[in-house]
Each structure stands twice: as C-alpha cells, then as structure tokens.
Amino acid sequence: MSQARLRRHDIRTAISRIPVEYRHIASLTLLVTYIVMLLGAYTSAIGAGLSCPDWPTCYGTWVPFLQPEIIANSPYSALQIFAEWAHRGLAMTAGVLIVGTTLGAWVTHRNTPIVKWSATAALVLLPLQVILGGLTVTEDLQPTIVTTHLGVAILILLCLLTTCLVAYLRR
C-alpha cells in the first residue's frame, strides 16, 4: 500500500473510532445554524441590528460586556447589544461547524455524492454569508442586503438539511 493511501486509511480508521457519528455532527451543525437564524430574526425584531455599530468587532472590542462604560453610553440596551453580539458569536461557531461537517462529509461519505456536495455547497456559501453579515452593519441595514443575508442563510440551512437527512438515510 502506498504511503498516501496508508495515511488516508489511518485517518479513516481513527475517525471511525470516534463515538460520535457523522450524522450527529451534521445534525448539530443544522441545529446551531437554525438557532443563528432565529437569533438574527430576534435581533432584527427588537431593533438591535445596529447595536454593535462596527464589524467584525462590537464597539471596537470582541467582548463589549467587559467594558461597562460601552453599555452605559450606548443608545441601545444591554439586551439589544447582547442579542447582536451573541448572533455574531454563534454565527462564527456555526461557520466552524460547517467547515467540520464538510470535511467530515468528504472523509466519511466519499461514496455519497449528495452528502459531499450539499455540505460543500453550504461551505461555498459561507464566505458570501459572512460578507453580507458585515455589509448588513456597515451599510446601515439596507433592505436588499438584509434580505439577501436571510436568503443565503436559508440556502445554507437547506444544504445542511439535505446533508443531514441523507446521512441519516445512508446509515
């Protein structure tokens, strides 16, 4: 067996010993992504879309709650700032999970094209979603940008739902 083939075999063997199955990771990614969408809708509904006025930081810091003067001097409530800040943080977590789900699809479902390509489609859409998230803030909630941000989120969610469902059906 060649060195490269042996290494791939070793990686697959190591992954197969992990007690969590791929479908569980795909499900977690789907759930976290959905929660990000719900939190984004909540943030919008409470008028907090600009409560972190800069991007990617929030008031020039990663954790605005460590500086109480930021909260005290903001025209937004602590709840509004927290909602926007939490939406961004959870979105970053979802992004990491999407990367892991895609890599996992290529390793564990290499013979299942729909799993590989639906996960890959979610990953390909991810940079666009990040850019739209930033533009949502920097362009003062322009309706076209906000709507496109939601539309891409829905596409990512559909890709992840496809990945998850087919992974469960193929077990």
Automatic annotation (TrEMBL):
The chain crosses the membrane at residues 21-42, 85-107, 119-138, 150-169. GO terms for cellular component: membrane. Keywords: Cell membrane, Disulfide bond, Heme biosynthesis, Iron, Membrane, Metal-binding, Oxidoreductase, Transmembrane, Transmembrane helix. It is a multi-pass membrane protein. It is found in: Membrane. It comes from Haloarcula japonica (strain ATCC 49778 / DSM 6131 / JCM 7785 / NBRC 101032 / NCIMB 13157 / TR-1). InterPro entries: COX15/CtaA_fam, COX15/CtaA_HemeA_synthase. GO terms for molecular function: metal ion binding; oxidoreductase activity. This is Cytochrome aa3 controlling protein. One of its GO terms (biological process) is heme A biosynthetic process. Pathway: Porphyrin-containing compound metabolism. It holds the Pfam family COX15-CtaA.
